[in-house]
Design a protein that fits this description.
CATH architecture: 3-Layer(aba) Sandwich
InterPro entries: KR_dom (IPR057326), NAD(P)-bd_dom_sf (IPR036291), Sc_DH/Rdtase_CS (IPR020904), SDR_fam (IPR002347)
CATH superfamily: NAD(P)-binding Rossmann-like Domain
GO molecular function, one term: oxidoreductase activity, acting on the CH-OH group of donors, NAD or NADP as acceptor
Number of strands: 7
Organism: Sulfitobacter geojensis
Number of helices: 8
Shape: globular
Family: Belongs to the short-chain dehydrogenases/reductases (SDR) family.
Strand order of the largest sheet: 3-2-1-4-5-6-7
Low-confidence stretches: none
Pfam families: adh_short_C2
CATH topology: Rossmann fold
CATH class: Alpha Beta
Number of domains: 1
Oligomer: single chain
Strand content: 15-25%
Radius of gyration: 17 Å
Largest sheet: 7 strands, parallel
Helix content: 40-55%
């Protein structure tokens, strides 16, 4: 039997992480780099991306882009592949939550949410998939949410996009897993990120959320490392089309 730790070794792999300028996306980029991958971070803000690449070092590069711009997908893929070659792994961590109540949802808010949270992961994956297929190996990791299956106040657009991510993940697996490309999603619970800043700034609200988990606490960025590395490595060769909830058991109660 070979060393089980080798299942998680990403040496020689190239990963692309969207939303890499902050939060779970930034953490994902750092985690994959520490596991041996060369990482390309993609986001709209150049300064945080610059900080990320400085922290990781020579095995990191960045692309400043709006991934929701569908007309620029081809050019974006060229930029992503330029530093290290076409990626073997893509992690779709970019996202937005306008937090508009159902009666207040605007067309612009709806379109912005669906474009970034749902449309961009599909078309970017579609464009990057052919290179994975040629290698016979690839990993697509989407970001689902508690709202993939739960309805939260002010979350109708966000929830619709994240529920759709669950089905998108299954459909990607059906289409592309015969070619060695797995497609899975991670569903975070409450983690301290820019998207959840308002939650964590309210101690009572944060405590109520923690009490709804089986573990009795909210997530830390470190809690995401293992599940992400599992889905991005050979350790998950026979796992595809799944939504792995990393939520301390919030959805189990």
């Amino acid at each position: 039997m070979s060393d089980p730790r080798a299942l998680f070794d990403l040496t020689g792999r190239v990963a692309c992480v969207t939303g890499a300028s902050s939060g779970l996306g930034r953490r994902a980029a750092i985690t994959l780099a520490r596991a041996g991958a060369k990482v390309v971070g993609v986001a709209r803000r150049p300064d945080p991306l610059r900080s990320l690449t400085q922290e990781i070092g020579a095995h990191a590069a960045s692309v400043t882009a709006d991934i929701a711009n569908r007309d620029a997908v081809s050019a974006l893929c060229t930029s992503i592949a330029a530093p290290f070659g076409p990626p073997d792994i893509i992690v779709h961590a970019a996202g937005v939550n306008t937090r508009q109540a159902a009666d207040d949802v605007t067309p612009d808010g709806w379109d912005q949410t669906l474009a970034l949270n749902l449309t961009a992961p599909f078309f970017l994956s579609q464009a990057l998939m052919p290179a994975m297929r040629l290698k016979g190996w690839g990993r697509i990791v989407n970001f689902a949410s508690l709202q993939t299956t739960r309805a939260f106040p002010g979350g109708i657009a966000y929830g619709a996009s994240k529920a759709a991510i669950g089905q998108l993940t299954r459909a990607m697996a059906e289409a592309w897993s015969p070619h060695g490309i797995t497609a899975n999603a991670i569903g975070p619970g409450f983690f301290p990120t820019e998207l959840t800043q308002a939650v964590f700034e309210d101690p009572d609200r944060a405590a109520r959320n923690a009490a709804q988990t089986c573990t009795g606490r909210n997530g830390t960025l470190e809690d995401m490392d293992g599940p992400l590395l599992f889905l991005c490595s050979d350790a998950s060769n026979y796992v595809t089309g799944q939504v792995l909830m990393v939520d301390g058991g919030f959805t189990a109660k």
